[in-house]
Fold each of these.
Amino acid sequence: MMQAEAEAKIQEVEAGSPALEQIQQLESDYLMQTYARSPVMLTRGKGSTLFDDKGKSYLDFISGIGVNVLGYDHPRVRRVLREQGNLLHTSNLYYHPYQGQLAERLAKASGLARVFFCNTGTEANEGALKLARAWQRRQGREDKTEFVSLINSFHGRTMGALSITAQEKYRKPFEPLIPGVRFIDPNNSANDFAEAREAINEKTAAVIIETIQGESGVHPINDDFLKAAREACDKVDALLILDEVQCGLGRTGKVFAFENTSVKPDVLCVAKPLGLGVPLGAFIVAEKAVDGLKAGDHGTTFGGGPLACRLSLEFMAMLEEEHLLQRVAEVGNYFRKHLRRLQRRQPGLIKDVRGMGLMVAAELTFAGKGVIAKMLERGFLMNCTHDTVLRFLPPYIIRKPEIKEMLANLEEVIVEEAAKAGQS
Ligand SMILES: Cc1ncc(COP(=O)(O)O)c(C=O)c1O
């Protein structure tokens, strides 16, 4: 179909689709009320731009919370979708051509040995916890069942993943959670991280750490702490699990965020962009722990299906062939440099600029909710976490002029919103 013809078709379909107001009514009547959505209905995308039902465009600085890293309507993704349309799912009862190939790619890229595919980040972490317990038991260490996690961590919403998530607001309604979890402060460097060395002990099955804490406001974990945690794990034979669900797979300018540090995990959890929007997660395991799970110990109906794995293979190939890692590093530096300039111009309004690659945060001195709403009105999608932190997770294909345009608008909006909050 010619471009103009395709556009006309899209508009025809959009014109026949229910309006935002109708959908809001249906959701308010029939959907569990667990999400506070922004009042926008997205209907299509192109590059780093999304369009709503009324044809208004939005520059995307959140990419579906770190998922849509190639933006929208990428020709290589369209081709895979077309070609794989006749076999979406096989179950794990049979082979299909892509799971083994993707496992090889992830194992080689991470320097780890074997992969288990699931569907989400939560499930990857959940599986990693199960692996740790089962592995300890298989070593004859029946009492080694506890987990150590970090304060401010976020690992997901299932009971296991929630049990190692520190934040009270997520945990409270669901207690009691799995017992035997300790939360430690990665910034407490007193006595060479004595707190961590004491918490990681002969009862510890595994330690789980987000290499860069995302949900709590983009906090890279300091390398000295990671080294201390690695040493403590080695001393007591606990597994070190790195949760790179948000920061992995190119987001920092390396395939995995731990490549920016001096440690290597025993288990690595990834998800979000892995299936380019089709749910796919994985935990990747070091040789020493691969016999933790045997046939029948763990499984999933959907995990590692042909469509998701084939999309993922295309993504992994593109990271290399289209030099996306270099791009993320360079454009990310540009983003932070210009955000810091904005901070210098508005010193009372931005407390901190943080991040790595295209995982970027600006911590405001006032609540960010109004900023997000105003930026949405101006056609920019982003998100606010921990009340005051503007979090940017744009697609890896975002361009410098698009960043510049967003920052020019952001400066005006934060000045306006700070004045309302009595900050200027
Ligand atoms: C670090 C981290 N772990 C786990 C999760 C949970 O992933 P999912 O929402 O795919 O279950 C998230 C989600 O934001 C995350 O950021």
Note: The pocket of pyridoxal-5'-phosphate is lined by residues 65, 120-122, 125, 154-156, 210, 214-215, 243, 245-246, 271 (CB under 6 Å).
Amino acid sequence: MTLGIDWALPRAILREYNELWIVVITYLSAAVMTSVLTYFFLMLTARLAQEMLFDLRNRMFVHTQKLSVEFHERYTAGRVIARQTSDLESIGELLAGGLNELVIGGMFMFFTAIALLILDPVSFLVLLGALIPLALLTRWFQVKTNRGYRKQRVASSRMIQYFVETMTGIRAVKAFRKEKRNEKHFGGLVEDYRKHNAHLIQLFGIYDPGLIMIGNMTVAVVLLVGGFRVLDGSLGIGVLTASILYARRFFDPMEEIAIFYNSYQSAASALEKISGVLEEEPSVPEPSNPVPFENAKGKVRFEGVQFQYSTGPVVLKKFDLEIPSGQTIALVGTTGAGKSTLAKLISRFYDPSLGRVTIDDIDVREVANKDLRREVVMVTQEAYLFSGTVAENIQLGRPGASLEDVMAAAKAVGAHEFITRLPDGYDTDVNKRGGRVSAGQRQLISFARAFLANPAVLILDEATSSLDIPSERMVQRGLKTLLAGRTAVIIAHRLSTVSIADRVLVMEHGEIIEDDSPTTLAAGDGKFARLYKAWRDSLV
Ligand SMILES: Nc1ncnc2c1ncn2[C@@H]1O[C@H](COP(=O)(O)OP(=O)(O)O)[C@@H](O)[C@H]1O
Ligand SMILES: [Mg+2]
């Protein structure tokens, strides 16, 4: 540039064009080189960004899935979704748009400053002086937005969480006519989010013009200082022109960098949330040296077990129980007595805080997860079906099972009839129109799944509660087949199931208060006898 003005231009005026050509060609080739290099650089950063995002997304999924039931009961689905969607997206935005801007901008500023230093050290000093207000302004912006983005993340997460919860509980919402109230609450959350965003935009609205002002003032000072030096002849006009251009261009990437910085702050708060999840450890860790566990007999023992949920009081206090292998237990008791907790401890969804739970005298904490899942199966009221066909859903019980085995399992629990009546029989997609199955049918499918799994220990936690009386009768017949030859714990709220049990346990406040055969208990005068009489009377 200086060469162009101070050396080539005067010659060109004298009609000697060679020097001008040299300068122009050098300039042009530099421009082409810049474009080509920028292209490769962009490709590279974009690939890197996409890979990082892909990796983070996968790690989030794998990790959240690996975490224990304890985490999921505490950290709702809505919050997990917020992490996986809006938080990851804000990181994606940063990686996609911002990163290369920062590198290009930073390099651009660095080399511009170096060029200016070589060209005119005095102007360089002026530029250096401008960095002080720049740093102050940036620091202010950083502190303010840091706080702002944290609040914005929380607000965004609350919004998503509420949305997810409302939609998953839509039946309850409708049943209790909660739409109006929800509308208002959600409106409030959206308003909150909007307010935080507006505040952030406001901050940026101060920062950005501030940058422009600092840039312009720097140029003005360079011009002023340079102007005096040109006047007293110590500076060429070309050098001054170039200096001014350099000083101006030095600030060009500032706006991009500010935008980058903004999305950086947003992504940093998002990353904070995400790493919070990634740092969670499964509360029921895999044993490092699992004990071999195959062909279990299914003897279950609780030895001095104490247990409480992280948020609640002690549910079990020094609990002892032995279930011999092959026995069918009916567990009854008032709501909140701790029946499901017992089931979750046998399945090792949670670990006791004191004492131990054993199967065949092996602590369940020493058994590899996959072995335990094979030998202990719990069927709950929810009877969740995955998207896919009915056959696939039953097959989950034993991956690789043949269709004959699947059908045999369905027949054993009495599910075969209704399945053959579905539009595509066993190939009916449970999530497609027409393939929708009722809650009772879902339970039958999950029984078939459990039957196919053929575990040593089977737990049914109110698993027949959404069946009507005729379906329940049907299941009862299937249940006999399902329970034969294995240890079973049936948590039942209808006493009809109790008759097939070898032994009844009545639970109250985390303790077993009655323990005997159903006939003995029914003939006695304890709590079970009273419950049983009331139930029999209700049938008449
Ligand atoms: N995920 C949980 N977090 C905190 N407390 C829980 C949780 N699940 C159950 N509880 C509490 O533990 C106690 C026993 O619950 P539970 O075993 O589900 O009873 P039941 O199945 O007999 O109705 C209750 O007081 C209940 O409030
Ligand atoms: Mg329960």
Note: The first strand starts at residue 300 and ends at 308.
Amino acid sequence: MPFKPLQFTPLPDNEMIQRSSTFREQLATRRSVRHFSTKEVPMEVINNVVMTASSAPSGANKEPWTFVIVKDPKIKRDIRIAAEKEEKAFYDHRAPDEWLADLEPLGTDWHKPFLEDAPFLIVVFKKIYGMEEDLQFKHYYVNESVGIASGFLLAAVHQAGLMALTHTPSPMGFLSKILKRPENERAFLLIPVGYPAEDAEVPVLTKKTFEEVAEVF
Ligand SMILES: Cc1cc2nc3c(=O)[nH]c(=O)nc-3n(C[C@H](O)[C@H](O)[C@H](O)COP(=O)(O)O)c2cc1C
């Protein structure tokens, strides 16, 4: 593989501190929202956030992901129906009591109208191995790679001035069927993207402090 000189401009300390602080403040205002407006969003924004996600690092640069973008109302409806079926079973009898107790403060239940209301659903699939024609090849650190790309995606949606929800209806096999995914792909996250509903509320949460999440040696 050919190499090229790295493009890198060092910043003075004060500018680094300023930039990191501004970015921290910007991302600290990100929230998951569960009530979406049906207001349309330009497709170009979705292209940009997906390509931001796809710029993420990945094990051996295999880029083991597919972002399936759903805007068709009929497909969104099929996804909602299938997700609500799984979620109803989860809330009614599959979820252990401890899990339900942890979800209680978030006010979630099996109803998922946002799967139809949000103008776009971005379904992130991980590719557990690569496939070219009939040949299979190995992927490395797939969960780590797709998790990082999904983090880039959520940050890009926020930066664009839109809202997202990280949604994981469990199990997610129905997404492979509805979206006709190949054998090497598994649904990873279902992310509605759009504007919040006018009356949207979010639970009051506190985030851990630096001392709680970091250790310095
Ligand atoms: C891997 C993952 C799975 C999640 N699954 C769901 C979900 O299925 N339904 C839901 O309403 N929220 C889900 N969430 C959102 C979390 O509840 C939310 O991120 C958390 O309460 C913190 O709120 P915030 O995102 O507003 O900071 C998920 C988040 C993550 C990271």
Note: The domain at 43-195 is CATH 3.40.109.10 (NADH Oxidase).
